[in-house]
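REQUEST FORM: STRUCTURE PREDICTION
Request ID: SP-0412
Submitted by: Lab K.M.
Chain count: 1
Length (residues): 755
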Amino acid sequence: MSSPLVTVGIANFNGGRFLEIAIASALGQDLREIEVIVVDDGSDDDSVARAVRWAKRDPRVRVERLPNRRGPGGARNRAMDLARGEWFAILDSDDLMHPARLSRLLARAEADGADIVADDLLVFEDASPGKARRFLGRGRSRTPTWLTAEEFVLETRLLRSRSDLGYLKPMIRLRAWRASKVRYDETMPIGEDHDLLFRLLAAGLACRIDPFLGYFYRKHAASVSHRLSAEALSEIVRAHRGHLAAAPPGRAPLLAALARREASIATAQAFVEAVAALKRGRFRRTARVLAGRPQAALLLRMPAVAAARRLWARMSRSPKPVQPSGKQVWFVCRQRVVGRTNGSSTYLLDLAEAVRRAGFTPRLLQPSPSTLGRWPIMWLKPAVRVFGSIRFRGVFRLGPLMVARDPGVWLAAARGAAAKVLAKLGLPSAWLNARPAPYAPAAEWLDDDFLFVARCIRGQADILVADYAWQTEALAYALRPDASTAVVMHDLFHRRMEVFREPEAPAAVARLDRDAELLLLGRADAVIAIQKTEADEVAGWLPHRRVLVVPMTAEPASTPHPGDASRILFVGSNTGANVSGLTWMLTQVWPALRAAFPGLEFLIAGSVSRAHLPSAEGVRYLGFVERLDELYRTAGVVVSPLIAGSGLKIKLIEALSYGKACVATSITLQGVEQETSHAVAVADTPEAFASAVIRLLTDEPSRTALGARALAAIRSSFTADARHGEFIDWLRDPGSPAPPPAQAPAEPSRAEAAA
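STATUS: Completed
RESULT:
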């Protein structure tokens, strides 16, 4: 491209082990108008060859080799000289970036008028896979803040500042940087980023810090930036003298801050010297050094605590776990998966079964306590044993029981129970403020959720599967940009909102516009769609993503079941589509059915029973039913009166698999019309729907014949062998090329560029 917005500069020296992953994370940004400049500083490993391979694949990558070693500062200076972007983002060759990092920083800088913008670091350690923490302290991790030169100096005192802001990896406006005449000090082997940022701030550039966890900072055995030595400290002293000289005259607060930093440097020098003498057994020397700088003695607690931790780790170390064989497929999920209790859970468990059939191990990660909703206890059913492991943040695990740690969840449950009791007694309950829990899959992400992902998955995932579009936000925090990724779409949620006017939308309908949804879906390599119609649509919008059609599966009964003509059945979870459809059925259709059959029963099973639905004579709300076999066997007709789209179609497919006569709207059949329209009575008006139910209830042979066609449809189109083949093929070869899209997108989208 002629004018990238951002240049990502990577200084490289023998970074072959991590360099390609760093480049991949830079190229995986939502912001596409970037260039990546890799400047090699005399490497003698294969890292240059690795970078060149990337440059051949993607013209946004450029590789420059320095003729002589110039150090990290020299390599970054060269990258800045070559940069064509409006902004310059620093990325170390062993670190990573969140895919939304550059777009987020750019938006923050432009909105606030900053010349420099930085974000929080997620610090992780190669030697300790379970360790991951955020870098910024409480003051800066909650809201965007400005950073002055005085604040920077006070927050970079050696061995005093928990969050030494000299470790930040800023993005800098190139015009302002070049105008300042400030460059990296090429003589500094360590601390060059700190030195540069101070001098830019002293020159008057405005710096904004965003608390977004966007930069992933790796600590490993070869890292040098977090080590202090006498040699490194001498360079820091030299740089500090330069900072004193660069400080603008008359800025007393800055000079005072520099004096405090100078004192911390002197203390650090005494500490390093005392530790070195102590290691050599020169105890008198140690005592003299500490006597001359008593503050350094307090710092001796750090190596003592570190030694104690190492000793404890050795004493309590469990046997080294056996590394799992085969691919590890991690599902990142925020729905309540306790068993085959609703459509979306059943679908996810079917995918996990397919992973098993492919010869791999499925694992479940539930990183958010919001998944619990208002239910503080979850009882896991045998079906979830398909997962090789289950990790759930915010719970105690007691065998099959998941128990909430947060007292707030218990309080919310108590409020909800009390509100129901008061409602039954006809008493007011609004004062309890017992609101329904937010829709968990779309709940706001917390940084603790992301950190949990990093601690649990890192290094173990070959394939990552996000359950619902919102979970693609968490994929980057697995710190595996080289892993293949997929997202289970379940539904096109922006289409649900198109059905309702905003004030009429049920609470369970998640708010998501088209561009935002496609942006989320486009963050995965593959999109798993349940309906071919929606799959073709998404493939047109996201032509560079693989779109897999993986419909619901079911095992057919041996014979059709005509059931009892005195009852009809609906089964469903508490979703907006089910609530709106049942409301339509109860108000527009049920009165006509009841008039034709005064003794007719309408059984409603599933969590939809908890919704505020109209009460009517003959209607029974059964709530959750453990086993549905008897209900399906005895029902004369199963109804599915949806008036808003729902992607899964599980209850329709389930009813057909029992050999039932079904009456459904054409919206219910959307996406599976070709396979099911001949096996279902379709009606869209209240009069036609009631007429179809009445006709079937009065004619058992018709119910039996329709049930037989239903079983034939299941056998031909919805068994696991027929439906999971494409998904299993992708698991075994995620890099296989995607087929051309079935149709072009109806209109352009910013998500296409992001993909």
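NOTES: The mean pLDDT is 88.
Reviewed by: T.R.
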